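Q: Hi! New to this. If I give you a protein sequence and the SMILES for thiamine diphosphate, can you show me the bound structure?
A: Yes, paste them in.
Q: Okay, here:
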Amino acid sequence: MATAPRYGSDLVVDLLRAVGVEHVALNPGATFRGLHDSLVNYGGGRAPELVLTTHEEIAVALAHGYAKAKGAPMAAVVHDIVGLQHASMAIFNAFCDRAPILVLGATGPMDATRRRPWIDWIHTALVQGTQVRDYVKLDDQPASVGALPEAFLRAWRLARTEPQGPVYLCLDAALQEEPLERPVPLPDVTRFRPAAPPCAEPRAIDEAARRLAEARFPLIVVESLGRCPEATETLCRLAERLTAPLVDLAGESQGRPSVPGGHPLDMSGARHEVVGEADVVLALDVSSFLSALGDTDRSTRETRLLNESARVISISLDDYAVRSWAQTFQSLAPVDLPIAADAALALPALLAAVEDRLVRDPRSAPRRARAKRLAARHAALRAEWRAAVSLERSARPLAPSVLAAEVWEVIKGEDWVLANGTGKGWARRLWEWQPERSYGGSGGAGLGYGLPAALGVTLAHRGSGKLCVNLQADGDLLYVVGGLYTAAHHRLPLLTVMFNNRSYGNDEEHQEAIAKARGRPAENKVVGIRIDDPAPDFARIAQGFGIHAEGPIDTADAVGPALQRAVRVVKDEGRPALVDVITRA
Ligand SMILES: Cc1ncc(C[n+]2csc(CCOP(=O)(O)OP(=O)(O)O)c2C)c(N)n1
Ligand SMILES: [Mg+2]
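A: Thanks. Here is the predicted structure of the protein with thiamine diphosphate bound:
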């Protein structure tokens, strides 16, 4: 292995190492043959380690899952304009989810005299970064080897500065392949760390504390607070002090979970009730106020607020993440006390200010009564959910609730991690739900996320003894089924459980709703939607990639033993496994 950098791309490997990038996911391409060679022959393929993917979308989605689980970015390398176009969906998801990723691209050569005919021309663009500019925090293309360290460190720093997100750095092929005539000094990377995130303005915190302490029925709503898992403890303490119900929007598809499912103040399952009763709402890291405080009619798309009179306090960095192209900023909701701050960082100060006020104004009797009432409602909800499982137990195909319950029976004694999926929301309802063990969804609701993101989570936890579980929908998997190769090749010990309804189920509901609204035959909802003629055999597909797999399974009784066998493969052999279970469409 070479010891001193000799080419521009060797320098990129030095920079990746210097900032501590441990993994680089890629799908090969000639525009980064220089970098590829440097990763293999200069870096030795291990520092950073190469992860081979079969599609650029998989490379980026894998880096997305990894960033959330590791709390640190990895890199994904994508080939010129074609790889970047494949990667773009996954970059968008990461942008919406505020996941930091270093996307390295390649182009050119920009010097036309050095281009090969045809291919180097059709794959060169001015300026390549414009393809993803609207959903990365920065795109850049250094024009010389000397400019490389600065461009790299700026991108690296911005990706990790709150609000975090993906960055795109395009490396000219000629620059990668350029021999270094003289050493290029590497800066001290510790001097380019991300800025400390903003805390809340003290007077605003004091005002928030006053409104909350004086509220008749305060409510706390969270959407993405789980980006900082340490915030959960303070969040629960604040809720307990105020006897404020907690509603976590994460658990279905959006956000990052932060509320423990067993907390007696968790009212996520009774959102309508508590929103309707609240007079003051504290929204922590909430972007979609209408998801939090409203109700939408599926067929008319009409949304109404559940409570017109509640006053809203919001703590988030959303206004610093606004871009004009995609309307990811959501509808403009009225907020009575907006506070721009990292919600997790603001929480301890808010808790202290609330405690201070409650000591001076201890009207505890109504709070005690409310705590009792909410705890009873919480227990009733959980009992309802368990009863739903008992009722459905013999149904064929399986109800998602029953499958989620079966998965729980098998993993509850393990040090589990939910790497992807929600089991149609049932994992949160039925499992002993610890939010720090899950990583939320894609952020951008772009399909093709689940498996590769789960592989990234598994990579981040490799060697930790944790059992990574992927609750995988069929339609989502079919976009990125080649991810199974990466799972097998890199021996990523991921347990995938298919919630296989042989359908783009979500769209089936939409087609039914619109057909009904128009007085047309609802039974046609399956046309152009079902994936059952012929039904893909996911066990055989996985086996074809060398993965242990069983299925299709369509009875509850057969699920447990198959899952147990799969868990043994994952744990004892350190290999991926898949169990295909047919669920209700
Ligand atoms: C890239 C992309 N294409 C299409 C859609 C529209 N879409 C949203 S949900 C859905 C169906 C998903 O099917 P599956 O993953 O099997 O989950 P299910 O609804 O059946 O549980 C589709 C096609 C999307 N969100 N993203
Ligand atoms: Mg489906």
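A: The pocket of magnesium ion (ligand 2) is lined by residues 473-475, 501, 503-505 (CB under 6 Å). Let me know if you'd like me to explain how to read the tokens.
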